[in-house]
Amino acid sequence: MNDAAVGHQCPDCVKEGNRGQRPARTAFGGSSAGQLGYVTKGIVAVNVLVMVASVVLGGPGAIAGGGGGGFGGLMGSGTPLTDLGEVLGLALYADGEVHGIAQGEWWRLITGMFLHYGVLHLLLNMMLVVQLGRYLEAQLGPLRFAALYLLAGLGGNVAAYVFQAPNQPSAGASTATFGLVIAMIVVNRRLLRDTSSLMPLLIINLIITFTIPNISIAGHLGGLAAGAAASFALAYAPQQNRGVKQAAGLAVVLLVLVVAAVWRTQNILG
Predict the structure, then answer these.
(1) What is the pLDDT of residue 95?
(2) d(C-alpha 119, C-alpha 99), whole Å
(3) pTM score
(4) CA separation for the pair 118, 68 (Å, rounded)
(5) Catalytic-residue membership of 220
(6) Which position among 54, 170, 174, 231 bears the catalytic label?
(7) Active-site residue, selected from the candidate residues 99, 170, 220, 231
């Protein structure tokens, strides 16, 4: 028998009662599994492993001081891995081959958010992922948070593809982290919590975006816009059939990004 507030309960009765209970949900419909932060940890792990692979393929110059230009030249240089996966519209490589998204290499719109030019680039982004991701994952649940992160990163990469010169490469998780910053504001406003402490974080990141050379302005702003749209769809969906409405809102964001990428491809090739 199990001790209860009043008397005792048999274990089988407790198990049967638990089966009839609905699992706990957050204010946005997410499962309580988000409190464990598995998606946030997974994102960090994948980015670190990709950085290790980039260093193995590119040598010590991939770590720092490789002439990347950003942050006073502290960024690492490109590697065969970044060449393969960075966001790039269309460019002629030294071996005479043409590469880029417009050439059919669509994976760059995804892989670009997991590649970094140097360890400093990686650390700055992963610090934000950890700080913001754990909170957002706990509020939204693992699946909704993962969708938010990927859509923000994709949105930033699509914006870089659309608005940058075709031969200008870019990479990094900052497209997604900008989406997380604005998502924090949207989610907290929906919960009627104070967001004043978050505004300086957004402003500082925008100042860095516009003042430090070789940073993808389009990528950061695109991640911000896509993250805002995705988080709004998640936070403000009506409670009735909330999951379906949230999925529909995210699907609309994805459709807009796909249309923009296809239009840009036709524009480059046309």
Answers:
(1) 87
(2) 26
(3) 0.88
(4) 8
(5) yes
(6) 174
(7) 220
